[in-house]
Specification:
With 311 residues, the protein is α/β, with parallel strands linked by helices. Helix content is 49%, strand content 17%. The chain has helices spanning 9-19, 32-45, 60-74, 97-124, 147-166, 208-220, 232-241, 243-258, 287-310, and strands spanning 2-4, 24-29, 49-54, 79-82, 88-89, 129-134, 173-180, 182-183, 192-193, 197-199, 205-206, 225-228, 259-263.
Length: 311
């Protein structure tokens, strides 16, 4: 099993869950120090073996070399999870062109590089394999101040659908798109911003482990798409059926819940180089409010469930 973007967030949580199953693991990301920390944790969790390969998915040659090394070492590749991504905040006209293009380069072209290399190798081996690509709710709706990220995720969604159609002629090969809503991961901390404020996950916010569980289930039992987030269907419905009302509400909602309240200086984030600090599964800045909102939502859901049961 290969997990891309394994140095933090959903990728790290997925790697640890796969390790607990005793799999041979290959972990990839740009930052070697963080990958080494995750590799140690995966070995302790029970992985049969852990191999670390640093690679930037936007580099097509590096991706091909990485996959060649994996197949040469293990003889085959059974499953690949791709979670790597970056983000940038700002009004479209204020986001520098190189920032906009870099987000697309990593999120879209990086996904294409991984999918191309993986699908070729799946087709060439007996039994095929499973490819799980992590997209986003923002691949189905739009929000202001995140034009590079939203554009890239819409494109990824389209690419995945094409891969799924073409995989029908490839025995044993399956492709799943996992679309999470707000997730408490470090992507917000390391995002570029040209808005005067940084981003934060809008509620309801899920822990990365919840998304990781959906990813692992998809590796075992392929599905076309998995949505993770209780509010995702409501957001998509509003976007599609009531576009006028949606457009009126989305900007103030984004300003209130999707952006940090404190001023933030302009930053290029981790778009062009990996951050040197250790990166764990969560975005530590947002942990307290995330836990509060998550707890309130869980209590509300439990109350609704009990009420329905009594009726």
């Amino acid at each position: 099993m290969l997990v891309g973007g394994a140095s933090g967030g959903i990728g790290r949580a997925t790697a640890l869950m796969v390790a607990e199953r005793g799999e041979h693991l290959v972990l990839t990301a740009r930052g070697a120090p963080r990958l080494d920390e995750v590799a140690t944790a995966c070995a302790r969790a029970g992985a049969a073996s852990v191999t670390v390969i640093t690679a930037d998915v936007s580099n097509r040659a590096a991706v091909e070399e990485m996959l060649d090394a994996v197949v040469e070492q293990f003889g085959r590749l059974d499953g690949v999870v791709h979670t790597a991504g970056v983000a940038a905040y700002g009004r479209f006209v204020d986001v520098p062109p190189d920032i906009f293009e870099r987000v697309l380069e990593v999120n879209l072209l990086g996904t294409a590089n991984v999918a191309r290399a993986v699908m070729r190798r799946f087709a060439a081996q007996d039994g095929g394999g499973h490819l799980v690509l992590v997209g986003s709710l923002l691949g189905k709706i739009a929000t202001p101040f995140m034009s590079p990220y939203v554009t890239s995720k819409w494109a990824v969604h389209g690419l995945v659908r094409i891969l799924q159609i073409e995989a029908r002629t490839m025995p044993g090969v399956s492709v799943t798109l996992v679309s999470p809503g707000g997730v408490d991961t470090p992507i917000y901390r390391w995002s570029a911003t040209f808005l005067g404020r940084g981003g934060q996950p809008p509620p309801p916010v899920d822990p990365p482990e919840k998304v990781a569980r959906a990813v692992v289930r998809a590796l075992d039992r392929s599905r076309r798409e998995v949505s993770v987030g209780v509010a995702n269907p409501v957001a998509v419905l509003g976007f599609r059926l009531f576009p006028g009302l949606y457009d009126v509400l989305v900007t103030p909602l984004m300003q209130t819940f999707g952006l940090e309240p404190e001023p933030t200086p302009a930053s290029r984030g981790n778009l062009f180089e990996s951050q040197p600090q250790p990166e764990m599964s969560y975005g530590a800045r947002n942990a307290a409010p995330v836990r509060l909102v998550r707890g309130l939502l869980n209590r509300a859901a439990a109350l609704v469930s009990r009420t329905e049961h009594r009726s």
